Amino acid sequence: MIVFKYINLDIPKLIKELRDLSVPSKEADFILTTGHKSKGLEWECVEIMDDFIDLKDIASNKKETIVAKEELNLLYVAITRATQTLYLNEKYLLDLDFIKTMKKWIVF
Fold it and tell me: What single string gives the DSSP state of each residue in 13-64?
């Protein structure tokens, strides 16, 4: 988990430094945001990193949980922000058989 990777850093100081270096989003060449903050927004190009829950981990649990449902909805929100190009981390590219298995127990 990313938090543990940077646990010994002064996170508030790091956030301040990043904010000091940033420009308004309309002027930015690159926007780094969360799935939550992306709701209602759109960009021509979106890249989904690997910090969402692993879909195969959800499926192996064989039961629907509130967390799993929320994570799937958030991943859906993030993916649907792209108007032209979407880059997905390979862990979200699933084979057709696995998708059919998921459809049996996930209700959207």
Answer: HHHHHHHHH---GGG-S-----TTTTTT--EEEEEE-S-SPPHHHHHHHTS-
